[in-house]
Amino acid sequence: MNRGRHNPPARQAGVAVITALLVVTIATVLAVEIAWQTNLDLRRTSGLMAWDQAREYAYFGETVAIGELERLLQEKQYYDRSTDQQARRGLSIVQDDKSLAGGFSDLQGRFNLNNLVTRQGKPDELVIKQFRRLVEAVASLNPDLQLGPAEVEVIVGSTVDWIDPDSTADFNGAEDDFYTSEVEPYRAANGWFTSVSELRAVRGVTPEIYEALKPYLAALPVGSHHTLVNFNTASLPVLMSLGDNVSLENANRWVEYSLEKPVEDVQLVAEGLIDPAMVPYIGYTSSYFEVTGFISIGTNRLDMYSLLEWNGQVASVRLRRFGVVESSLPADATLELGTDAEGKVSVSGQHE
C-alpha cells in the first residue's frame, strides 16, 4: 500500500514567502496609485481654486479700472491725448502672493476694421482708401516689412472680402476658394471682426505684418453708424491715413498740438491736408476703451481683456475674455492695493 506524498516543509515555506511578496507588491502598487491619484486631485483642486481666485481678482481689477476711467471722463469734456497717456500708465495691485497689473486705453484712436463695410454690407470706398493709407504708413515706418504696392493691395482687398457678406473675391482679395486650398483649410468669416487677431487669418498678412499693424487697429461693436476716429488720441499712422498727403511731420505736429489743447474742429488745424470727405469720420472724444492686464496668484497666471463702452454717464463691459491679451500691457503702475488692520481693502495712488 502506497502512502500519500507530502510536500517538504521547505517547499511549503517557499510558497508562503512568494505569496507574501506578491501580496506586498500588489499592496505597494495600490498604495502608490492611490497616493498618486490623491496628489493629482489635490493639485487639480488647487489649480481650480487658484483659477477662481484669479477670475475674481480680475473682476476686481476691472472694476477699479472702470472707476478710474469714469473719473477721468467725468472730469473732462474731451477724452484727449494727455488723458489717454495718463490712463496708459496703468495700475498695479499687490496683496500677499497675489498681483494684478494692467491698464486701459482708448480704442477710437485706432482704425476700426468694421468700418470697411457699411451696415448694409457694402464696401465703404472712402474707408477702404483710409485703410490703404494706414497700411502704407505702417510700411513706411517699418521698412523691414518690405511691403510694396502689390502686397498692400492684397491685404486691403482681402480684409474687405473677409467682412463683406458675399462670396465673390475682389480683384486683389480672397474668399473661400483661396482659404480652402491652404494646407490647413478654413473659410472666410464673411462677417464682422470680433477681434483684431482675426486679421492673422487674412490673405497677405504675415505674423510680422500683423504685429506691425495691431497697435493701430480695433474691432469695435457694430452700431447703426460707423465709429469715429478720435483725432485727439489718434496715433501717427492713423493720422497719416486721413489724407493722401499727410506726412509723418504733419502727424507729429498735430500730436503736439493736441497735447497742448484738445482739437475741437479738425479743419482749423488740418492745413488743408485731410480729405474733406473724411471729416464726417473724425471725432474728438471716445466711447470705446479696452482694459488689459494679467493676474498672478502663486505660480498661476491669468490674462484678461475687456472692451468697455462709455455712454456719457457710466462705462459698461461689452466684451470680456480671459487667457487673451489684445495689446501690450503698460509698463508703469499708479495704483496699489492695501489692507488695514481690520482687513478692509483700499486702493491708493497718485492722480495727475
Structure described in brief:
This protein has helices at 9-75, 81-88, 125-141, 149-163, 176-179, 207-213, 236-240, 248-260; strands at residues 91-95, 98-106, 111-112, 217-218, 229-230, 282-283, 288-297, 300-310, 315-322, 335-339, 345-349. With 352 residues, it is of the alpha+beta class.
What structural class do you assign from the helix and strand content? alpha+beta
Low-confidence stretches: 324-352
Give me the count of strands: 11
- Provide the residue-averaged pLDDT: 84
How many DSSP H or I helices?
A: 8
CATH topology of the largest domain: Ribonucleotide Reductase Protein R1, domain 1
CATH class of the largest domain: Mainly Alpha
Q: Compute the separation of the termini in Å.
A: 115 Å
Shape: elongated
Q: Could you say how many structural domains there are in total?
A: 2
> Major beta sheet, specifics?
5 strands, antiparallel
| Strand portion | 15-25%
CATH superfamily of the largest domain: EpsJ-like
Query: What proportion of the residues is helical, as a percent range?
Result: 25-40%
| Oligomer class | single chain
> In CATH terms, what is the architecture of the largest domain?
Orthogonal Bundle
Gyration radius, to the nearest Å? 30 Å
Order of helices and strands: HHEEEHHHHEEHHEEEEEE
Strands side by side in the biggest sheet: 1-2-7-8-9
